[in-house]
Amino acid sequence: MGFGRGKVILLGEHAVVHGYPAIAVGIERGVVAEASPADEDLLKLSPWNVDVRPDPTGEPLERAFAVALSAYSERPPIEVRAQVDLPAGAGLGCSAAIGVAVFHAVDEALGLERSREELAAAAYGWEEIFHGNPSGVDNTMSALGGVALFRKGEPLQSLRSNKPLHLVIGYSGQSPSTQEMVSSVARQLESDPVRVNKAFEAIDVLVRNAKLAIEAGDHVALGQLLDLNHAILSSLMLCTTKLDAMCQAARNAGALGAKMTGGGGGGCMIALATKHDEALRICEALGESAFVAEVSA
């Protein structure tokens, strides 16, 4: 059974595009896949009811599936059945999770073994189809999980703590284009570099302090840093009324802190709870689009 995790950016999105660090978290919700010999190469995605055949010149999923299968030199036709438990285009690393799960499932069906690190590297080619020049954080966190500090062009730095993170992830129901949001920030940077660079530098400070808070198990401080990061992202016009309302509802329900996560303009928010029971209470306040993610650092 192949498995690829989803991921969230805890702090640092958008600034990370411009060379600053971010903190990423691999969650235990994602994509489960199974593969077996068949009459033709086929990827079946549930609950979307989508059948994908490999095509190097087709749609992104068709091209990605072709790239994945081209990595296996001698094999029978393969059918991969994948159950996707993440919203697409919501900043949770759905495409990377599918890629990792597909590679893992095909490996198992063919009796091949590779490490989770090798699995992450294999899935990078899959991510290139969807993102052109991906950072590598999504496929790496999908394969490895945990909590890590990330800076573009550098290896992930795993963060350790003796306390798990009790996160609540809420989906706004909107799936914006990350590329459009990144372009919006780039335009702001060009027109008002002083203001936007100050925002990036402030995010950098928050990320560095969050690293220390995670390692020390100081989740009260971490929650405050999440709130501050949310305020800066809002100042860059990345938040929506719906995300703001969801973050406030989480705080009202007892969250230590809450923020949008990912590209913005919709997508998801995250909230930090002190313990599992409180995470469930926050989840209930956010409604059926929310779920709890327990992460060990």
Instruction: Look at the structure and give the CATH class of the largest domain.
Output: Alpha Beta
- CATH-derived architecture of the largest domain: 2-Layer Sandwich
How would a crystallographer describe the biggest sheet?
Answer: 7 strands, mixed
Number of domains: 2
* Structural class by helix and strand composition: alpha+beta
String of helices and strands = EEEEHEHHHEEEHHHHEEHE
Percentage of β-strand residues: 15-25%
Terminal CA distance: 25 Å
CATH topology (fold) name of the largest domain: Ribosomal Protein S5, domain 2
- The geometry reads as globular
Number of helices: 9
Query: Which regions contain 5 or more consecutive residues with pLDDT less than 50?
Result: none
Mean pLDDT, all residues = 93
Query: How many runs of DSSP E, i.e. beta strands?
Result: 11
Helix content: 40-55%
* Estimated radius of gyration: 19 Å
Tell me about this structure:
With 297 residues, this protein is α+β, with helices and mostly antiparallel strands. Helix 1 (60-70) packs antiparallel against helix 3 (116-131), helix 2 crosses helix 3 (116-131) and helix 5 packs across helix 6. The protein has helices at residues 60-70, 94-109, 116-131, 137-144, 178-191, 193-216, 219-235, 241-252, 276-286, and strands at residues 2-11, 22-37, 42-46, 50-52, 78-84, 146-150, 157-158, 165-171, 257-261, 268-273, 290-295. Helices cover 43% and strands 24% of the residues. The chain folds into two domains: 2-157, Ribosomal Protein S5, domain 2 (2-Layer Sandwich), CATH 3.30.230.10; 165-295, Alpha-Beta Plaits. It contains nine helices and eleven strands.
